[in-house]
Amino acid sequence: MNASSAAASARSRLGRLPGGRRAQVGLAALLVVIVIAAAAVAALLLATSGDGQGPPPADRAARLVPAGALVFVHLSTDGSRPGTQRALKLARRLPGFQGRRAALIRRLTAPGCGVDVRALHPKEAALAFLDLGSGTAGSLVLVDAAGGGKAPVDRTCGTVQVARVGGFYAIGQPQAIQAAQQLARGRGRALADDAGYRRATRALPAGRVADAWVTKAGLERLLVPQGGLLGTLGAIVDQPGLRAAALGLSAAPGGARMTIRYLRAPGSAGKPFAPTLAGELPANAIAYVGMRGVSGAGRLLGLTGTGTAGLAPLLARAGKDLAPLLRLFGGEVALTITPGAQAPVLTLTTRTRDEAAARAALAAAQAPLARLLRAPGAKLPAWHRRGGVVQLRPPGGIELDYGVFDGKVVVSTQAGGVDAVRRAKAPLSGTAEWSKAIGKTPTGVTSLVFLDLTQLLGLAEQSGLSGDRTYLSVRDDLRMVRAVGAQTAGEGDESTAELFFLIP
Fold this sequence. Notes:
- This protein has a 19-stranded antiparallel beta sheet, with helices on both faces.
- 33% of the residues lie in helices and 25% in strands.
- By secondary structure, the chain is α+β, with helices and mostly antiparallel strands.
- It has 2 domains: 3-264, no CATH class; 277-443, no CATH class.
- Helix 2 crosses helix 8 (228-237), helix 2 crosses helix 9 (297-304) and helix 7 runs antiparallel to helix 8.
């Protein structure tokens, strides 16, 4: 199998996850699959180990890729770099490492073309998807050949070509090879010359083992339509006003760290806030998202896919009748997912300085909420008060419960979600997993995320994911990840997301 067809086959397999099960994976599991896959790409570490300190990763491959590349994925294979050594050490702890290493080597070996990357001792390798003007994206694989090895003559292998270009072996469609050759001759504008690419990648950690560049067009044309793991990664990376993003993956003490640098339209970044509610939320939360306001909550709910995304239409379709209610959630908001008897419980919590005014706003929203949440063709359901919780349980519709107490407004999909916040004794921020994945709760962030992977994967398997082949192929690796912590911050036309994957 040649490198191009192997890459296409891999993309096809990643995109086959059925819609129903894909939703059950949830944001956390899919994020970790992407990181585990990136760590498994470190299986490309073909160079021998070394002890030198070394510079940041070599990046000559970007000089052979056109500036308009839709997606560019770059890997350091230089075993003398400490960053590469740390990544290899971490990757070797993953049960699936050896198998993925062998598979990736086979795919890049391109046996029909006589290229054996193991004999090249490369310091870097890259994969780019280019707009060739034919309505489809062409692929270009670049493997550093400066380390020597027997050089095959340029040749055509099926639908792709192999050529020696600027110190690299280039494998791809003829048009992609020609584009790289033109750049090697000094003609045209390379990705390395793009100001946005330079600015974004310069902000990535020097000790990274892999990095990537994706444009808005690349997300819309290549990632999001794929569905499955790649589609979810695209939805995660995509942000309001996004123009392009650079991602870097590094090994870190206790796990792995992914840094995402966003280039976006001015003023499109979220508003900063100081997270405080995690100190008052139940410790058994499967997931927590802290933000300012609820404008982004609908998108986050759609990504979690834990059976609680039914509130997303409420946020998306909220009209003027719900404006006073939404103003209650204009400050710090915490979205949590906790275990439930029948289904996970989704809860929104915010603070209020005027409990009476908050109760009045909630009471005024009861009628429009009942109309919005009733099942098609059903009569308008009624609200009922049980203790300190006000409930709406429309037959065949979405349950909604709320309470106002201790300076907080709590809205949940089950009464137990409201009670869990009211009775929380051991806070989420006091757990060992939070301490390791988040550390000291930051200030001035635009979002804060914590995911308990142990609980989330158990929930996903109960929902039927355990029968999916894609999930089973990475399950043992996923189980190595205990928790995920993430935070975003930024201003102007740039923002940064830092994700830490706890692998104790």
